[in-house]
Amino acid sequence: MPASISIAITNSIIREGLRRIFTDADFEVSESVSALEELNLGLSEEEVQHILVVERELLQDNCTAIVGTMQHDHPEMRIIVLTGAFDFDEMVALYAAGAYAYFPDNVPYLSLVAILQMVSNGQKVAPPEVIDFLVSLPAATRHAAPAPAIEAFGFRDRELRVLEHLALGQPNKAISREMGINEAAVKAAVKAILRKLGVENRTQAAVMARELINRPSSLVGQEAVEGNVDIPQTSHPPQPSLFDHGSTSSDSSTRRFSGSIQTDRMIARKSRDTLLQ
């Protein structure tokens, strides 16, 4: 059974054009509106496959929050965002919020139909800009050696906190609100993060941050090997968060990452020492 589609586009001519394209492609257009408030999202609860094609401008500044709320309230609905100004970081944030596709609004109509077909089958679809970005990465970046521990980058406390939010795909406005600082301070921290990581944009920074989540701290690992760290006495030691927020150092100090301790190696060393006694 073909998916039903809701269209939310401001321009009535574009709405009618999309309606005819989708109908000719054997999709059922259940509604066509000019504002989000006019949507009858209850339709998505009655249909196994329901797709919302929405204009980016209707989502306003808090687009990721709106998409996230829609996906939470209507999990069966699949959202396609059409934008007049492609933004790579915004695309990443929207996919993280649950969108199934994010494409420029000048996408050829046959390609748009193909996108609808893939989304109706449960697939998330990436625009060609993603491929262009991956191809543009230097070979050394694609096949680089494992990244160093977080201490090697010399991040300040605020920069680490901002980097954690970048890893979650949050825009500057959301980071500013979460941290209680102005957007100018967030922007300055992002600029410093990009410089220290040696990357060109926040998307690359977010990728590196996620890689660092499970990477043990080189300093902590060395202390564990030398036996300078006590073995936790609990059978299930607490797992470290993305970044250690327990530091009381000021923003001008360098913050240390709380990587995992190599407990198995410490236990092996203690067992060996016991046998040698």
Task: Using brief descriptors, characterize the structure shown.
alpha/beta, 5-stranded parallel β-sheet, Rossmann fold, 5 strands, Arc Repressor Mutant, subunit A, Tscrpt_reg_LuxR_C, Sig_transdc_resp-reg_C-effctor, Sig_transdc_resp-reg_receiver, 277 residues, 47% helix
- At the fourth level of CATH, the homologous superfamily of the largest domain is Winged helix-like DNA-binding domain superfamily/Winged helix DNA-binding domain
Q: Structural class, from helix and strand content?
A: alpha/beta
Largest sheet: 5 strands, parallel
Order of helices and strands: EHEHEHEHEHHHHHHHHH
Structural domain tally: 2
Task: Give the C-level CATH assignment of the largest domain.
Answer: Mainly Alpha
Counting DSSP E segments of at least 2 residues, the number of strands comes to 5
What's the mean pLDDT score? Answer: 75
Shape, please?
elongated
As a percent range, the share of helical residues equals 40-55%
Our Rg estimate from Cα atoms comes to: 24 Å
Contiguous helical run count: 13
Strand-residue fraction? 5-15%
CATH architecture assignment of the largest domain: Orthogonal Bundle
What is the CATH topology classification name of the largest domain?
Arc Repressor Mutant, subunit A
Sequence stretches where pLDDT stays below 50 over 5 or more residues: 218-268
N-C termini distance: 74 Å
Strand order of the largest sheet: 2-1-3-4-5
